[in-house]
Design goal:
This protein folds into two domains: about 80 residues, no CATH class; about 100 residues, no CATH class. About 40% of the residues lie in helices and about 20% in strands. It is built from five helices and nine strands; from the N terminus they run βββββββββααααα. The strands form three sheets. Strands 1-6-7-9-8 form a five-stranded mixed beta barrel. The protein has a two-stranded antiparallel sheet with strand order 2-3. It has a two-stranded antiparallel sheet with strand order 4-5. Helix 1 packs across helix 2 and helix 1 packs parallel to helix 3. The longest helix is centred in the middle third of the chain and has 23 residues.
Length: about 200
């Protein structure tokens, strides 16, 4: 039987261990990995399955929770949500969260590195080649900032520079330069052009 979300106190939680490993399972619809915990809310012990091994909850924190009871299960299944001090659902805005922005920037750097290797027809000898190129691009994208707009503009400049690989007159340089250094040079030119327009 499923109950509505109600306000409660997350008194404690601990990983549900089987031998030396935390119990985990994959959602059949989303293919997302979940980790099982014993949780105590308002004195009731149940099973809680967040998508992380390090949930962002503290013992004693107010939460909104829902219990689902299935026949044959010893413990109810909890669904837990963050809430405000007033007990209203808390919206977690990750739009300007520096960690989220940096993760997105890293993904973009890896994507553009792979595209650059393909356009340059370079052999990818190992994953470390991709990591090295992506690290150069990522470091340039995030250099000295946590601002979404700055990283977004830099990512777009790198994307345009990688697109220029198809055009040897634009991509080649008068001086001998390594390909990823040339990508960053072109990205800086694009960035400076867009700021002066």
């Amino acid at each position: 039987m499923e109950k509505e979300f109600e306000l409660g106190i997350l008194e404690s939680w601990r990983p549900l261990m089987i031998d030396r490993d935390q119990k985990s399972w994959k959602d059949s619809h989303s293919n997302q990995l979940h980790y099982d915990f014993f949780a105590v809310i308002n004195g009731v012990e149940g099973i809680w399955s967040p998508k992380t091994q390090r949930p962002e909850y503290k013992p004693g924190e107010k939460v909104l929770y829902q219990q689902t009871h299935k026949a044959g299960n010893k413990y109810p299944k909890f669904t837990i949500k963050k809430c405000t001090d007033e007990g209203k659902p808390a919206f977690i805005d990750r739009y300007n969260d520096p960690n989220t922005i940096r993760l997105q920037s890293h993904d973009i750097a890896v994507e553009l590195t792979i595209k650059a290797f393909e356009e340059l027809k370079l052999d990818i000898a190992s994953l470390s080649n991709i990591k090295d190129g992506a690290t150069l691009l990522y470091n340039w994208i995030v250099k000295g900032t946590n601002e979404r707009d700055v990283m977004y503009n830099r990512s777009n400049a790198v994307r345009r520079a990688v697109d220029c690989i198809k055009h040897p007159r634009i991509f080649s340089s008068a001086k001998p330069v390594k390909p990823f250094a040339r990508i960053i040079e072109l990205a800086e030119e694009f960035l400076n052009t867009s700021h002066s327009a």
